[in-house]
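User: Could you check the structure of this?
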Amino acid sequence: MNEPTARHRAAQGGIKLGIMAILLAITLTAKGQTLAVKNNLLYDAALTPNIGLELRTAPHWTLGINAGYMPWPQHSARRTKWKHLLVAPEMRYWFCETFSGHFLGFNAVYSHYNAGHLHLPLGLYPTIKDKRKQGDLVAAGLFWGYSWILSPHWSFEAEAGVDVGYTWYKNYECAHCGTYLGKDDKSFVMPKLGLNVIYNIK
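Assistant: Sure, the predicted structure tokens are below.
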């Protein structure tokens, strides 16, 4: 086994263990706690159906997991492609009380993607404009946010942060053809942004 393959498998294994740990914590502590179900409107705007779960585990702490899945290609008439699956466990510290006010969080990310000929805003990842890339990524980062209570069960929150990660992928010549150009891997930095609508289950 070569070194990159071992590194990739170790990264995937670490993400899977983290997701399992959070799901186990939610299962063991759900009784008598507050559970929130959320939807990120920015993901919806990018045509990515998504859902998040967040559980209060202590007076100032919550654990959560978010998932998004885009199963269809976008803008095939313009010969672009963008499909992906994303899973992101997270942990938050709330400065006043959980699900209200300011919070600071840590998150991890795993994604499998297939994207090509995309023109992303702010000049992000310019090489994806000319080729299709199919692969996986792992990342971790910090974020800050604020949650506004709208009613006993509904709230709205905004969050922003930065993730640093590593990706490995195969290159193809165009968005919808199979001309293989070789493998590559790289480190990256990406923004984390969210405008979330939340329903609190008490």
